[in-house]
Write a structure and sequence with these properties.
This is TELO2 interacting protein 2. By secondary structure, the protein is mainly alpha-helical. It folds into three domains: 187 residues; 83 residues, no CATH class; 183 residues. It contains 21 helices and three strands. A three-stranded antiparallel beta sheet has the order 1-2-3. Helix 12 packs parallel to helix 14. The radius of gyration is 30 Å and the shape is elongated.
């Protein structure tokens, strides 16, 4: 059955001939059957471009006239969302720019190529607008609203977002009509998702609410590899524009997915791509935790520290950054900055591994100094330093025996201070501090072959006494 015949059987061949929606829902074939037939016709081999263009326009008529209950309320609620997701994917592929054969050549086809792309985009955009309008209309329904949120939206929103982001700005492959439709689509997309802006759509409404940035990056990832990113001229622009919508603190968890493409762009020989890559890197550095960002940058720009030869180890940027961080930590007296340093220091220790032994002298002074000073009710600095000490012992345990006395003294002093503190420190924070200190004492005992003895006490949680070489020091 041809699509035009299918529409005639539904009496949807023109807006003026629409029947009452309730009658249509009762007499028309199920939505699953109709959508499956449309997908089959559209994906069939040998279908010409003009035929597909006609199908897209007919599909727009179908979505405009279809009743929401008929479209979304079929007997198989898990089938229709999948079919809609497949249909959106097929239409995005139909409107996408064909892949370039090389990174220097222009797009395939003749001079009218971009005009054809813009026309396809406009037609597909109208279909997406009609579909999202139906989704928005049904969101308040008690029976179908939950289906929209849980099943239909996750399958469609990411793909439609990339489609709209590709065509919303003035580019060689867009026209005034396609840009207008894409901008309208982007606005409706944000509204359907229950957000107030594109940034909120990607980031989430709050720090604890997950946005859709990860899903969008997952869809873009295959197009952002070293081998593929130049084959589609729109990919780099979609990535760059999407990246700039996400700011702190939402960008930090996605550093591993946004940093490699930015470095690829900046390392390209074309000046336009270099500038785009530098702009992406600048945005990343401004909106993520700088120390962790530096670690990820160094992981790309230099070899792993453990794989370098002995002669080159001392001169690597990773070691130089850590030396600079430790120098600032020793001299820092402002509590907010001490908390930031201490929270991120464990990442350096984990990255260097056994090579952290090269920095033990200065690191020991930092650890002792930070354990001595209470930094407020949350104790973020001391908790971070305890985690740093724990990681250091685990990675550089052969070097711990000679530093046992100094570290034990600092830990015991902190345990005594926390246990006798009658201030405003909450009990859960005290418990976390004592637990972290106990873990460090146990690790020190293991790596010193039993020179430290830890026993659980009654008056002081987790630790009452520590004996060193047979001499007991009571807390």
């Amino acid at each position: 059955m041809e699509l035009s015949s299918l529409l005639k059987s539904l009496q949807l061949e023109s807006p003026s001939d629409r029947r009452d929606p309730e009658c249509l829902a009762a007499t028309a074939p199920p939505a699953e059957q109709v959508l499956s037939q449309i997908l089959l016709l559209f994906s069939a081999e040998g279908v010409s471009g003009s035929a597909k263009a006609g199908m897209v326009r007919d599909l727009h008529v179908l979505f405009e006239a279809a009743d929401c209950q008929w479209l979304f309320g079929g007997c198989h609620l898990n089938v229709t969302p999948k079919l809609l997701g497949d249909l959106v994917s097929v239409l995005c592929h139909y409107a996408a720019l064909p892949k370039q054969d090389s990174d220097t050549g222009g797009p395939p086809g003749n001079d009218d190529f971009y005009t054809t792309v813009a026309d396809r985009t406009a037609d597909v955009g109208l279909v997406f607008l009609s579909l999202l309008a139906k989704v928005e209309a049904i969101k308040g329904s008690r029976s179908l609203g939950d289906v929209m949120v849980r099943q239909v939206l996750p399958r469609c929103l990411g793909l439609i977002y990339i489609f709209a982001a590709t065509h919303h700005a003035e580019k060689p492959w867009t026209s005034s009509r396609s840009r207008s439709i894409a901008q309208e689509l982007l606005t409706l997309l944000v509204q359907v998702a229950g957000c107030g802006s594109v940034a909120e759509f990607l980031q989430g409404g709050s720090k604890d609410e997950e946005g859709r940035f990860a899903a969008v990056m997952g869809l873009l990832k295959p197009e952002l590899t070293k081998e593929t990113w130049k084959r589609n001229p729109s990919t780099k622009h979609v990535f760059s524009w999407t990246l700039r919508q996400v700011t702190r603190p939402w960008l930090s968890p996605h550093l591993e997915s946004v940093l490699p493409p930015s470095l690829l762009f900046s390392d390209d020989y074309q000046e336009e791509n270099k500038i785009l890559g530098v702009c992406c890197l600048h945005h990343i550095i401004l909106n993520v935790v700088v120390l962790l960002c530096l670690l990820d940058l160094l992981l790309v720009l230099e070899k792993s520290p453990q794989r370098l030869s002995q002669e080159l180890r001392a001169a690597t940027p990773c070691h130089e950054v850590l030396q600079l961080v430790l120098t600032h930590m020793e001299a820092e007296h402002r509590l907010p900055l001490r908390r930031v340093y201490a929270r991120n220091l464990p990442a350096f220790v984990k990255r260097l591994g056994i090579l952290i032994a090269q920095h033990l002298k200065r690191l020991e002074r930092v650890i002792v100094g930070y354990l001595e000073l209470c930094d407020g009710p949350d104790e973020a600095a001391r908790l971070g330093i305890l985690e740093t000490l724990k990681c250091t012992i685990q990675h550089a345990w052969p070097r711990m025996a000679c530093r046992l006395t100094v570290l034990l003294k600092a830990l015991l002093k902190m345990i005594w201070g926390v246990s006798t503190d009658g201030g405003l420190t909450p009990q859960p924070v005290k418990t976390a501090l004592l637990h972290g200190a106990t873990e460090c004492l146990i690790l020190l005992d293991h790596c010193s072959q039993g020179q430290v003895k830890v026993s659980q006490g009654l008056q002081i949680p987790f630790c009452k006494s520590v004996s060193l070489k047979g001499k007991t020091k009571q807390n």
